[in-house]
Design goal:
With 287 residues, this protein is mainly beta. 4% of the residues lie in helices and 49% in strands. It contains one helix and 26 strands. The strands form six sheets. A seven-stranded antiparallel beta sheet has the order 1-22-19-24-17-14-13, with no helix packed on it. Strands 2-3-4-11-6-9-12 form a seven-stranded antiparallel beta sheet, with no helix packed on it. It has a four-stranded antiparallel beta sheet with strand order 5-10-7-8, with no helix packed on it. The longest helix is centred in the last third of the chain and has 12 residues.
């Protein structure tokens, strides 16, 4: 008697969100996709900003020294150069294709300033929450230049930069056991298809920043236009398909923490009392 093989379920789009223009730092213009009224968060993801401009006036003031506690920031540069520096003595320059995964932990004060006065500046910053037992750990960095981000072609017309997670036998350099993140930069030639397994229960989204994509299959497929985010429902895999033109998107997923969130500006804790303590520690110079 032949066993019945259950079909593999594609994740469907349960919500589409378009980012809203805003400014941060010393007036840097950007688009806030997660962390705005239409999508306040997507556990464990707290914020997603896209920045991209050819006008130096939109970015030249940068992000002067500012504090963080209780979460992680992920900066992925597509174009341009950004110098970062912190009060623990860490300093460097993010170049096109570089990734900085910063664990703020118990507290850090850092700055991110353009290392250029002309040209294009483009990329993403993502915030991930930390679990309660890791909010006060020592700050740490996972920082990788473009030469350390593997590029794979798992199917015809598909090109994937693996920042975190796996594509076939290739594993990205970033490791975070608490949320087990997937972070992929997926580029599809015209009429190409990319299928990627995602762990059941992980929150996941796709953000298209070039062209447009179809997500899912058959009558349940959804078209995701440029500069739009798709929140994915549960399922075993995600299917991305390009149309007549090439497309590029980030595919991000992670294990939800399902913990209380007390959040104000650059501090993300579990209780209001912990937030007050964070402000007190920062003002007392204990970061």
């Amino acid at each position: 008697m032949n066993a019945v093989v259950a079909p593999v379920l594609d994740r469907e789009v349960v919500r589409q969100v378009r980012g809203m223009p805003t400014a941060d730092g010393a007036g840097v213009k950007l688009t806030r996709v997660i962390g705005q009224p239409a999508l306040t968060d997507l556990d464990p993801f707290l914020l997603l900003d896209e920045f991209g401009t050819d006008n130096p006036g939109d970015y030249i003031a940068g992000f002067p020294a500012h504090p963080h506690r209780g979460f992680e920031t992920v900066t992925y540069m597509l174009d341009g150069r950004m110098r970062h520096k912190d009060n623990h003595g860490h300093e460097g320059v993010l170049v096109p294709g570089a990734v900085q995964w910063m664990t703020a932990g118990r507290g850090i004060v850092h700055s991110e300033m353009p290392e250029q006065q002309a040209g294009r500046m483009r990329g993403f910053q993502l915030w991930l929450n930390l679990p309660a037992d890791a909010k006060l750990i020592e700050p740490a960095y996972q920082e990788f230049g473009p030469d350390h981000i593997p590029l794979v072609s798992p199917a015809r017309g598909v090109h994937v930069k693996v920042i975190a997670g796996q594509v076939g036998p290739v594993t990205g350099p970033v490791v975070q056991p608490a949320t087990d993140p997937t972070y992929l930069d997926v580029e599809l030639d015209p009429q190409a298809t990319f299928v990627r397994h995602l762990p059941p229960g992980h929150a996941a989204f796709v953000y298209v920043f070039e062209g447009e994509l179809s997500i899912g299959s058959g009558s349940k497929a959804s078209v995701l236009p440029q500069h739009c985010l798709a929140v994915l429902g549960d399922g075993a895999q995600v299917r991305l398909q390009s149309g007549a033109v090439a497309a590029r998107a980030i595919l991000v997923a992670g294990r939800p923490l399902r913990e209380p969130v007390a959040r104000y500006g650059p501090f993300v804790m579990n209780t209001e009392a912990q937030l007050r303590q964070a402000f007190a520690d920062y003002q007392a110079g204990r970061f």
